[in-house]
Write a structure and sequence with these properties.
The chain is mainly α. Helices cover 82% and strands 0% of the residues.
Length: 272
């Protein structure tokens, strides 16, 4: 009789242990529901939230906006590199020609030194020499006015050629933020549409779409800020270059006013 009671108690203890084993996971899940849900992947969330992952997961319109802004940024840096090299070469040649004119060279000597040259100061010298040939070497007020007119036109043409391509930087700087804002508005609109379709307002579901939309604005700022800075820098450099051309024109007018169209004969030649 006692042995049967003992076996009955042992069976009851085993049943209680099995119930505890089954109830324990349920109790843990009840105490930590968020931890249990966090372990399950949410199909509504993107797996990669890096900039490249957000770009790949973005809408086709937002992708197009970001690709266009990346291309605009590439154009900006290409123009900066090309124009910086071109301006350095042009300013070096202009200073060399200006130093030659300041040494007191005559117009004929300057014309010989600049024959078949295409730089700006050389064109100023050749244009002055051309007007001198057409005027038969007669220096009067009309001749000086005609030379001044020629020099102004050559200066304007050379500065315009050197400024070619710089205006696109102003366009990029002015429009890139608005293009990026368009991509952001489109992406946020799609995010709200996704919220309505998924019937959830969970921030973890909404935030990735908004982040992808804001990435377009970031692309717009990355394209616009360097474009504005580089445009202002190139505008200052081109203004300095035009100042050099103005100094060269002033030196040519001084040569004309002195009547130095031709260098006077040397002392040895005069003695003979």
């Amino acid at each position: 009789m006692q042995s049967s009671q003992t076996s009955h108690q042992h069976g009851k203890i085993r049943r209680l242990r099995m119930s505890a084993v089954v109830i324990s996971p349920i109790a843990v899940l009840a105490l930590f529901p968020q931890a249990a849900l966090a372990q399950q992947p949410n199909p509504l969330l993107p797996h990669n939230l890096s900039p490249w992952g957000m770009f790949l997961h973005a809408d086709i319109v937002v992708k197009t906006v970001m690709v266009g802004l990346a291309f605009a940024s590439l154009v900006t840096w290409t123009v900066w590199l090309a124009k910086t090299f071109e301006l350095q070469v042009a300013k070096r040649l202009a200073r060399r020609r200006l130093a030659m004119l300041e040494r007191g060279s005559s117009l004929s000597e300057a014309t010989q030194a600049c024959a078949k040259k295409r730089d700006a100061v050389a064109q100023l010298i050749l244009s002055t020499a051309r007007e001198a040939d057409l005027s038969n070497g007669i220096i009067d007020d009309g001749f000086k006015e005609r030379v001044s007119l020629r020099l102004e036109r050559v200066e304007a043409a050379m500065a315009r050629n050197l400024s070619r391509g710089v205006g696109i930087l102003a366009t990029i700087g002015a429009t890139a933020p608005f293009v990026g804002l368009f991509g952001t508005v489109w992406g946020i609109m799609n995010s709200f549409i996704g919220i309505s379709e998924s019937h959830t307002t969970n921030l973890a579901v909404v935030a990735p779409g908004i982040a992808e939309a804001l990435l377009a604005t970031a692309f717009g700022l990355v394209a616009a800020i360097p474009a504005v800075v580089i445009y202002n820098h190139l505008a200052r450099v081109i203004s300095g270059y035009r100042t050099l051309l103005g100094d060269a024109s002033a030196q040519l007018l001084l040569i004309i006013s002195r009547g130095q169209l031709r260098r006077p004969p040397a002392l040895s030649d005069a003695a003979e």
